[in-house]
Amino acid sequence: MATRKPSDPLGFAVQQLGASGETDVLVEAPIGDEAYSVVCDAKARGSGKVDQLEVLSLKDHQADNRADHAVVVAASFAGGKVSGHAQEQGIGLLPLPVLVEWLRLHDAWPQDLLAYRSIFRIGGLIEKLPSEFLQIASDRKRWGTLLGDVVELFGETYESGLTEPLSAREVFKMLVTRKRGVRYPAKDVASVMELLSHPVVGALARHGDGYILVMTRETLALRLERLAEEVVHQEMDEPTV
Predict the structure, then answer these.
(1) I need a labelling partner for 214 at 20 to 30 A (CA). Which of 2, 61, 165, 181 fits?
(2) Domain locations in the chain as residue ranges
(3) CATH number of 139-235
């Protein structure tokens, strides 16, 4: 009987199957009309390297579960025919070192299930995390850095005795001057200031055509922690089926 977990550490819904003639795990990304699913088989060999693959069986598992993708996880894979055959059939071969790197990156800066689909779209040996996924992770981390820089800049201006409200354009110019070597597009600065002024966050308040900082960095961090706790509590309070 299948065991269903509401969510794994990466955010997927997971069904552990594993009975004779079934795939080991069915992974699902419930993201509206972008939803997708993946059949995952785990392989172990005494040598640590998988040199044979039952591709037709994996394709059957994919068809039986109406899955969009199929992936095999193992310590390592032999090249040549194994990789070539998997590539022909659109089956991903995920070595443990790449999976570990994925988990480490998620722990450092979690990404969404749409970004993670790029990994499952690779047919054949997945030698490293796809560049488009790494770029998304880098871009989103940059947003976090920009948020911190904006809050820091407001704090520095107040410490210098400047108390007038600051517009997004003024903040952009000041960041260019103070953060030499760091370049943020003006539209990104404006977007972050809109986020910080949203009532849910509330770190900035609008005054005329500009903004003032009404929350310390420490209070902002605490507010974000409390928001995260609310998200977790809502999930825990949902009725189980």
Answers:
(1) 181
(2) 3-129, 139-235
(3) 1.10.10.10
Residue entry with tokens 């002024």: 197
pTM equals 0.78
Nearest 5°: phi and psi at 31? -125, 55
Across the chain, which distance is largest between two alpha carbons, in Å? 72
Query: Would you write out the chain's pLDDT as a tens digit for each of its 241 residues?
Result: 444 554 567 889 998 887 767 788 999 999 999 999 999 988 876 555 676 777 778 888 899 999 999 999 988 887 778 888 889 889 999 999 999 999 999 998 889 999 999 999 999 999 999 998 999 889 888 999 999 999 999 999 999 998 899 999 999 999 988 876 668 899 999 999 999 999 999 999 999 889 999 999 999 999 999 998 988 775 555 544 4
